[in-house]
Amino acid sequence: MGIYRELAGHPGVVRVLISQLTARFPFGMLSIILLLHMQLSYGDYTSAGIVLATQSIGQAISGPLSSRLMGRWGMRPVLATTSLLCAGLLVAIATVHLPLLVVAGIALCVGLCTPPVTPAVRTLYPKLVPSNQLSALFSLDAAAQEIIWVLGPVVAVFVSSQFGTTAGLCVAAGFMLFGGAWFILSPAVGQVVLPPSRRGFGAVLRYPTVVISTIIGFFFVASFAAIEAGIVAAFSGGDAHGSSMESGVVLALFAGGSLVGGLLFGHREMRPWSILLRIGIVLAGTLACLVSLNIWWLSIVLFIGGLGTAPTFAAISNVVSSTVKFSETAEAYGWVGTGQLVGVATGSALAGIAIDIADAQGAIFVSGMLLVVCALCAAVSLRWIPDLKGRSVEPPPETGTLALPLN
Question: TM segments (predicted)?
Fold first, then answer.
């Protein structure tokens, strides 16, 4: 654990880590809140799925595009503009009852205005710590990220059940504005200049590791969104104002397992098979949920499954950082982040339909199948995943080797 104390000693690391976590926290809340808000507004989960799907389309477009714009216009202008627009649109959805198609259009704009905090911060990390500590920082970031994806829904369910889904959406907008401002005003954000990419938009997808990381991240996070919706449905009986205590306890223990796994194992040197192994741990815990919906059983198996969650995210970041040039890392993380954000919306949408058809166990089954596909993707990608044993995790040089003729 001493490595984490060393990381905290570097100027700017703690502030950047906490502020970006706060700025990204709403995206762990939004899928569940929108699911509940749309279900209350229109009477079914399928309508919620439509809204979440349009949001995911917007995110798919905005992720790599806004990340690339940071290299042209700078991090601060892009982050500030998107944060203000996105928060305003969320408040509009919360406070005005509109026809479903209009809400779906606004949700599309929410996706388009998603602040590119994730690619921004992961582009900053190699400039904040030495290369031999970068893997540990990615691990710490991955453990913190689990607060977003797993603990976020706990906050979402609690606020929505106690104060209503309108308040829940406004709280998410507040997190976005406060956290975004805190991160944007960090000295590190102003000091690091992101050079514009020398290649055309989308050229970063020629890196097999970027494509692999994006696909794995999509299925991995989609499985979480699905099981979170299933856990909420299992203890609320389909009523957004039902008991949130049981689902909150289960999801909190899921988050606890991920935090423990991230801190204990996430910083270990990565081998090509590490991602597959870590996904397998999560898959085992998810499939075990189908045995029983008893709160104690779910708490135990999801805590065990959570041990592989943060280490998987850390491995994905290591893969990208060690294979993509610095000038292209923002766009690369933009594609990876898009995969994860779209995964959240897609998993929630599929879970909503599954809950309508087969109740909570339907959503848990969807989560398990998404993880099976994720594991298969990791298995067939072993030949392209780098072996980082004994290597520092840092971007390759911008220039290639020039061969000179011998005289």
Answer: 21-40, 77-96, 102-125, 166-189, 210-235, 247-266, 275-293, 299-320, 332-355, 361-382
CB 318 within 8 A of CB 138: yes
Q: Fold for domain 14-191+201-380?
A: Growth Hormone; Chain: A; (1.20.1250)
Picking from 179, 172, 184, the residue whose alpha carbon sits closest to that of residue 87 is 172
pLDDT averaged over every residue in the chain: 82
Secondary structure of 156-219 in the HEC alphabet?
HHHHHHHHCHHHHHHHHHHHHHHHHHHHHCCHHHHHCCCCCCCCCCCHHHHCHHHHHHHHHHHH
Q: How far apart are CA 121 and CA 401, in angstroms?
A: 29
405 pLDDT band, cuts 50/70/90, is: very low
Q: Cα(first)–Cα(last) distance of the chain, in Å?
A: 54
Per-residue pLDDT, 47? 82
Q: How confident is the model at residue 174 (pLDDT cuts 50, 70, 90)?
A: very high
How far is residue 245's CA from residue 234's CA, in Å, rounded to a whole number? 12
